[in-house]
Write a structure and sequence with these properties.
By secondary structure, this protein is α+β, with helices and mostly antiparallel strands. Helix content is about 20%, strand content about 15%. It starts with 8 loop residues before the first helix and ends with a helix.
């Protein structure tokens, strides 16, 4: 299975249906697959939460080599 930030119910269903679920840490990071972002319902409508990552070394960089960036106040936004 791929990683996900606040994954959907269907992701959790798949996880629970696996006999021995595993995260593929060697899979290439893909910013289009919600590996570092999610949408949540907020008082003013849908809100996208994104965990910033450091610049990728290459386009096929494995998930296990991704580093979270400390840039900005993203953590504060996520807690509120």
């Amino acid at each position: 299975m791929t990683t996900a930030y606040l994954p959907s119910i269907s992701w959790w269903r798949n996880w629970l249906n696996e006999e021995m679920p595993e995260i593929d840490v060697n899979a290439p990071f893909d910013k289009h697959l919600a590996m570092n972002w999610c949408n949540i319902d907020a008082p003013n409508g849908e809100l996208r939460l994104t965990v910033p990552i450091q610049k990728l070394e290459n386009k096929r960089q494995p998930v296990k080599d991704i580093k979270i960036s400390s840039h900005g106040d993203w953590q504060h936004k996520h807690w509120h």
